[in-house]
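This part of the workshop introduces the protein records we will be handling. A record pairs a protein's sequence with a compact description of its fold. As an example, a complete record with its sequence and its structure tokens follows.

_____
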Amino acid sequence: MIARSFTGLAAAPGLATGAVLIYRATAAHSETSADPATEQSRLVRAIAETDATIATHEAALRAAGQTESAAIFAAHRLLLNDHGLRERAAALVREQGQAAADAILAAAEEQAIELERLGDAYLSARAADVRAVAMQVWRALTGAGGLSQRLVTPSIVVAHDLDPADLAGAPRDLLRGIALAAGGLTAHASIIARSLGIPAVVGLGDEILAAAADARTMVLDGDNGLVLLDPPADQVARLRARPRERAPRGAVARGPVTTRDGRRIRLLANVASPAEARDACAEGAEGVGLLRTEWLFLERPDLPDEEEQVALYQAVAAALPDAPITVRTLDIGGDKRLPALPLPREDNPFLGSRGLRVCLSRPEIFLPQLRALLRARAAHDIRILLPMVTTVAEVRRTRALLEQAQRQLVAAGRPFAATIPLGVMIEVPAAALNAGRLAPEAAFFSLGTNDLTQYTLACDRGNHRLADLYQPLDPAVLRLIRMACDAAHHHGRPAGICGELSGDPQVTALLIGLGADELTCAPAALARVRAAVTATDTRAARDLAERALAAEGPEQVRALLGHTL
């Protein structure tokens, strides 16, 4: 017997088995309503109750060091407490006699439609958030249960999409995994699933909903984006026998990591906060390969000053004493916006002002960050990583601003480092193609495979309709990785990988074969990747890379890696 299989995006790692639970979050029209005064009071209470619930989720995630997920709930609180949303719902109750439950949904829908009409990808995503918070208020008013009330046995939830609150509020012992028709790797459900350690596959398409309707059990492989319906026992056994299941747990392995034949591979962590840096240390990280500084800026009405930024870098460095800390400069634009720094509307923000482009255009924002990094470098091994680099001129302009920042610190009498390594992210195809000219200007390369994939294949990684095209293992992407690594090595520079691929132990040998010297991944993935490195033979890895580069497409590459059953 062969199970029905579906392939989507590997959004959160792990292997899960459980009963199939199809979940549809729907709201029915309220048939009755009390007098407007009563409904107004109910509306106010329900909004307050919802706000408290969201605040609880946010606080729990912040306490766990999951700042990226916490920021999602912080944004939801801002939307919930938006004066326009509250006033419109109150007006529908007061002037049209609507029940409070109907009014909050109607007000949110009006607001969401207005956001979608603006034609901006970022604002369209916020429309979904407005609907999500309104649904929470509706449940508080009607007593309707969410996902947590539907989970009664250990299950894998199949849905079109899931609200962040549904995920955060679900009982962890019963929610084994999630399989979503919609979504991408940067969707809210994917981010929160990774934070909570819930295996997830997204972008499966609506056919998964129909196929799962008559299925009883499911196996979900969050490492490889695979979903199996009613699989036979031997197929499940083969999945469980894969190397990731043999990753060491308990006592954490530490120290330098080498392949079987002695090639040194540095294992670093991808973090956004001191708490995550402490997690990385506990998991045996040799340093931080990517500190995402934008989370210090997000969901706040003002910009962090220089002192606040220095404190963050020093706190992260203190969590990993004597280890290298690579700090990515402010990376906003595209799907990341700052309330305190409005960006002009663009028809295609992912191809507009993003990353380093924004910083170079706003030196009043960039210079305080550069000064903070130079000051933190005086006592710690801090390194700078520039995102969204396209040209050599951009790197040279950054160096000129670094020199200006140094002069400002001299004038202010502040201690700082005389030099600081300046690295370049390779996530634009032009940067990979021009890597031979960028390498002399950079101290190191870090390849961001998420953006490199979407730009190379011209498909938005958050668009579930293009999930079949967004394939990081496409040979075209692999050729650019090889090209960048070769250019780095030719000029004596190290090359690292910091995208989703770097945390997948099934891909570790391929990345080593392509030339990666460093792998940066989430702290939770370090043990599995370490085990994969130590099991790798460099010569065999290079042979694997050559065969992958010669493959016709990502399906053949996955077959080479043993991804198919």
Observations:
- The chain has three domains: 4-25+147-232, 36-142, 246-560.
- Residues 243-251 have pLDDT under 50 and may be disordered.
